[in-house]
Amino acid sequence: MSVLIVGLLIFLGLHSVRIFADGWRKALIARIGENSWKAAYSVLSIIGLGLIVWGYGMARREPVVLWSPSDWSRPVAAVLTLAAFILFPAAYVPGNHFKAIFRHPMVVSVMPWALAHLLANGTLNAVVLFGAFLVWSLVDFGAARRRDRIEGIVYPAGTLSRDVIPVVIGVVAWLVFAFFIHGWMTGVKPLG
């Protein structure tokens, strides 16, 4: 469990710098350059993510069961993860309603993804992993919305034609992930 926690501290800590130390972040970027910042950020993110995956895998070998998920948790988790898979690409498609409504759809996508996995798993390692991501996404979303208000950022209204792109990408990615990749990666087939 300690490897998982260290990975979470690195990954989510790094992804929280803008929330808690944006002045330091900006000063460091000014000193070392944006490309150096992005390179260091990427390397540390990959290390943190690797530790999360490794630590979660180790913790799964000897799970501490906190509760048994209900029968309804799998279909609810499937719907929640579908929403997450649609919201994630919406961050990159300009002029869609998801971005107009949520402002930060990538961060919002973490919320249903984490909640889905909390509902579908009842182990301590799942609570640590997905609970950490859920808390982080809520805090980051609040901070991003505050920054938007302070900086006067206005997001353009969305159009239905631009909504199709993240929906199609999200549904296709969700189907591929749910039917093929998730089972291969985790040994768990979420849709049976």
TrEMBL record:
Keywords: Membrane, Transmembrane, Transmembrane helix
Transmembrane segments annotated in the record for this chain: 37-56, 76-94, 114-143, 164-185
Location(s), subcellular: Membrane
Main location class: membrane
InterPro entries: NnrU_dom (IPR009915)
Bilayer topology annotation: Multi-pass membrane protein
Segments forming domain NnrU: 3-190
Statement: the UniProt record of this protein carries the keyword Transport: no
Descriptive protein name: NnrU domain-containing protein
Species of provenance: Paraburkholderia metrosideri
